[in-house]
Amino acid sequence: MTIGIDFGFSDVKIVVAEKNPDGNIHITNAGTRPVFVDEKDFDPEKLATAHWTAATQELTAEMGLIPKKIKNPISSISGRNTSVKQLTTLEMDNTELATSLEFEARKHIPMDGTEPVIDFHILGQNELELDKNDVLLIATTKNTILQHDKIKKSTGFKSGVFDSDPISLANAYTHFNELPKDGVDIIINIGNYSTTLIAWGQKHRFFTRELDIAGYHFTKEIMRKRNVDYNAAELIKREEGVKTLTDDGSSNTEVDPLAIKVAELTIFNQLTDELRKTLRYYMKSSNQAFFNKFYISGGSAYVPGLIELIAENLNIEIELLNPFDGSPGFENIENPAQYTVAFGCALRGLVEA
Question: What is the pLDDT of residues 128-183, one digit of tens each?
Fold first, then answer.
């Protein structure tokens, strides 16, 4: 048995998974708990350790878990606070490689006065340069690690292994899918504070980017448009979805039928535009890459009409990345896509065990 924890900016998610004697992995328990309650103007920047602690302790009690008895809980650090890059390096031993990558990491993470903390995975020999290896570098800072560890320990869990959201998402994706031999698959994880886009294929580099538009920004825009508090805007978002910021639902005032209508770019359209720009950048920087399948996950993927809007604007088909596939008993779980990061952490735990 292993446990994956996602300390999200809206909810804490926990997934318990185990491996059968035949090698199949399935989820045995899962739950979620909001990190804030009855807030009229929620701000994820103001979340404190106490918020995650209270939510996690309530959730573990509800799930019947005793944190201090869990041997190796795996948790994930937000992609906003980490850097994940695929690099090509000369062949060298791990000590030399670690020194070289630490220098490289300083270029990609915002330094906060503490030294970088890195991990890496050698993907294999580069196809074009035989004396070089492709390496996946994961970097953050010591301060980020300490802050995350403080949250984890305050809930009663041991430190365990830390993962990064893009890596957890990639692990969840590869559990259900094979990397395409040609072209790349795309994963779009829409959280509460940021959206993570991942592109990956067997012959193309692992690429990820964090977009600063997600569920929280949807809610703030509804607050502004409807002149309501955060809780009311959250309810509107869940019930009306993308329609709440269109002419169909944005105002109760009379509309002049003779007036010239100009389509307003909503926050939802802004997200699709950022996704499009990122995909174009990837295409230009990755020779001969093309897109195969698109997968969507994350707590804000549930927003009514959002998947359809992205699919229509980008002219693509999107599949939901559901971590509960193959796990009987969870067919009716609410918003399964929000558990993808936690499931990816649990998979990592089964490997580490």
Answer: 888 899 999 999 999 999 999 999 999 999 988 899 999 999 999 999 999 999 99
Residue 29 counted as domain residue: yes
Q: How many residues make up the chain in this entry?
A: 353
Helix axes of 215-226 and 267-285: crossing angle, nearest 10 degrees? 150
Which CATH number goes with the domain that contains 271?
3.30.420.40
Per-residue confidence at 108, pLDDT binned at 50, 70, 90? confident
Cβ atoms of 199 and 209 closer than 8 Å: no
pLDDT in tens, 18-30: 998 888 899 999 9
Residue range of the domain that includes 54: 2-217+267-352
- Strands 2-7 and 11-19: what pairing? antiparallel
| pLDDT above 90 for 207 | yes
Query: 261 in a domain, yes or no?
Result: no
Dihedral sign for Cα atoms in the order 11, 269, 198, 347: positive
In angstroms, the Cα distances linking 4 to 35, 162, 293 are: 17, 10, 26
Asked if 173 contacts 194 with a C-beta cutoff of 8 angstroms, the reply is: no
* Count of beta carbons in the 10 Å neighbourhood of residue 159: 13
Residue 211 pairs in a beta bridge with 195
Task: Please classify residue 26 by burial: count the beta carbons closer than 10 Å to its beta carbon, then call 0-12 exposed, 13-18 middle and 19+ buried.
Answer: middle
Picking from 308, 313, 240, the residue whose alpha carbon sits closest to that of residue 272 is 313
336-345 per-residue burial string, b: 16 or more CB within 10 A, e: under 16: bbbbbbbbbb
From the number of C-beta atoms within 10 Å of its C-beta (0-12, 13-18, 19+), residue 335 rates as middle
pLDDT of res. 251: 41
What does the block give as tokens for 249?
A: 């639902």
Instruction: Indicate the number of domains in the chain.
Output: 1
Q: CA dist 72 to 2, 252, 313, 315, Å?
A: 7, 54, 42, 42
Q: How confident is the model at residue 260 (pLDDT cuts 50, 70, 90)?
A: very low
